[in-house]
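tool=predict chain=A
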Amino acid sequence: MLHLDDIATHDELFSWTARLTAQVIEPLGRGESARYFPYDWTLRAFGPPRVLPPAPVLLVEGVGAGRRALRPHLAALLWMELPAPESWARGRRRDGEAQREFWDGWTEAERAHFAGDPSRPHADLTVRTTPEGYEVLPGPASPLRERLPDPDSHSQ
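tool=predict ok
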């Protein structure tokens, strides 16, 4: 698993695609281990290198994983359906007061990112929270959507 929080920085909330491509996507595409430098959000600096060996599946987690520049490299795109205010509240609780200023800027940056490069319409699967856990449904771009029954149909 690769967390995009390790790739993004305070100064590059969404302009990290070239670094991700050079450090992770290209080496893995050649069958080599990737070597990237995770960002430390407290120190505001890149840390020591982390090696990511080639694997049959790599889960890239985080906002921006479904961006236009990365979609050609994806086998599938999963969209986590969560209202933005709830997602932002979770992040604020996780990061605490030390990152309050960051979160004030993040919300606007995320809105701008999705306005210019929406991911949700390209999702193969949509994941939603339920009281019991999670529900996985075909996403807007899934070929499975064509085979789902029409909710307005009255067939038996």
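The helical segments are 17-29, 84-95, 100-116. Strands lie at 2-3, 34-36, 39-40, 45-46, 50-52, 60-61, 78-81, 125-130, 133-138.
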